[in-house]
Design a protein that fits this description.
The chain is an all-alpha fold. The protein has helices at residues 2-9, 29-58, 63-80, 82-90. Helix 2 packs antiparallel against helix 3 (63-80).
Length: 103
């Protein structure tokens, strides 16, 4: 039960391996990093598209009046995923030691 919760929360950590893309085509580490970074931008783009459709459909295109809701939702997403985004972007800078002790 608790392991199922942890697996479900792995999506919040931008863990691309949960989607099992390697079953279709093995991805090198650079591709996996690029997919993690792209996931952040895709999330922001989807929020923008949803906001545009919502404002056009329900508020007759008054974007300036509805801008605080877009800024608030974007801020909430960034606050929710801050550590995940930061760890994803810093992952190429985390060095791992060679098993033989060589650098």
């Amino acid at each position: 039960p608790f392991s199922d919760v942890l697996r479900a929360l792995a999506v919040m950590n931008f863990d691309i391996r949960i989607l099992q893309v390697d079953c279709v085509a093995p991805a090198p580490p650079l591709t996996r990093f690029a997919m993690r970074v792209f996931l952040v931008f895709a999330l922001l783009a989807s929020i923008g598209v949803i906001h545009i459709v919502f404002v056009l459909a329900f508020h007759s295109g008054k974007f300036r009046k509805r801008m605080p809701s877009l800024i608030g939702s974007t801020g909430t997403i960034f606050m929710s995923f801050f550590l995940s985004i930061l760890s994803s972007l810093a992952s190429p800078l985390q060095c791992q030691q060679h098993p033989n002790g060589f650098s």
